[in-house]
Each structure stands twice: as C-alpha cells, then as structure tokens.
Amino acid sequence: xxxxxxxxxxxxxxxxxxxxxxxxxxxxxxxxxxxxxxxxxxxxxxxxxxxxxxxxxxxxxxxxxxxxxxxxxxxxxxxxxxxxxxxxxxxxxxxxxxxxxxxxxxxxxxxxxxxxxxxxxxxxxxxxxxxxxxxxxxxxxxxxxxxxxxxxxxxxxxxxxxxxxxxxxxxxxxxxxxxxxxxxxxxxxxxxxxxxxxxxxxxxxxxxxxxxx
Length: 213
Ligand code: PCA
Prior knowledge:
By secondary structure, the protein is an alpha/beta fold. It has one domain: 3-Layer(aba) Sandwich (Aminopeptidase). Helices cover 36% and strands 20% of the residues. The chain is built from six helices and eleven strands. A five-stranded mixed sheet has the order 2-1-3-9-4, sandwiched between helices. A two-stranded antiparallel sheet has the order 5-8. β1 (4-9), α1 and β2 form a beta-alpha-beta unit. It is globular. The structure holds pyroglutamic acid.
C-alpha cells in the first residue's frame, strides 16, 4: 500500500535528465510503500498532474522534489510563496511573470515535514543537507505552494513538502562540467531517509537552521 507519494520533475532548461525524477523512481523501485510520479515542468500541467497522483495513490505523506542546479546538498524547503516569476520559459513555452499560484490564496505556506529532523538524519547517513528558506519562483515553488494549498484545503490529514536536490554527479560529468553535485544513489538515500524521518517524527527538532541570507 502506498504510504508515501514522491514526485520528481521532467528535465528542463536544456538538461538531458532531472536527478529529482531519477532519485524518486529509484526509491519507489525498492520500497513497496513508496510511489513515484513524474511531473511535467509546465506551469499549466504540473498541479493537475499532482492532484491526479494524490487522488490515485491516497498517500499519508507527499514529498515533491526538483532540481536546484548549483546547490551543494539536499535541501528540504521550509516555505512556499504565492508567486510565480519565471526566469526562463517552461517546457510548454510559458513564462508567467508576477502572477499568484492561487488567486487570493495566503501569501505563503510552511512545509509540514520535519525538515530539521530530516536534515539531521540525512547528514547522519553521510549526505550533505541543509534547510532552505526559498524554493524560488519557478515551477518547483508553484508545485510546493499548490501542494500545501491542496493539503490544507482538501486533504488535512496528509502531510507534505518539497525538497530541492543538486545536479547529479553523472549529469555534471556527462555535460563536461564541474558543478556541485551528488550521485543519484546518494540523493535517493537522502530522500528515503527524509521520508522515513517524516513518517516517524511529527514534531520537528528545536534546533536552529537559521540563516542570515
Ligand atoms: N526544478 C525547477 C523546476 C523543475 C525542477 O526540477 C525549479 O526549481 O523550479
């Protein structure tokens, strides 16, 4: 039975792969209680696809993930904002600027994942991780905000949140670059650790994850 729904994204921005999808599909392949669904990197189609996945799998936990190229570790996101401001067109060619994810929705939602406990567990498993306080203003933040709005308004017993992951080492090597990266295997281990932590822990650790910038 599916307990955890994990989503990853299709490749975007000229990349050949998206490590978020590669990692979540790897977790789902080894866990009966985890289902993985790939979301399109498209403003119009991503949230309807997420809703369909939640209605189909009826999870108790939803972990959406996406690629954040340039980050050096796995970064559970703390806050989703009600704003879309696309730097580049999405995979359907749409580039909305300064529109809300949900008209008249609250300015922001906080994750309901125990992000600090998850970061501690991921680090203990040997993978770099830190709490992030911005998921950006592109499709990932849109999905994060849309997820939290959906859970708050229609699925109040379901917890969820969003995790950005770095480029994969394989992806960076294939592109002949040298950017910060983690292997798909490490990203998958980190996401599995996060899900297990969230299933076990409902009250987050009272330790600082504060940042000045
Ligand atoms: N990352 C993008 C969208 C899809 C993805 O994997 C983002 O951070 O918004």
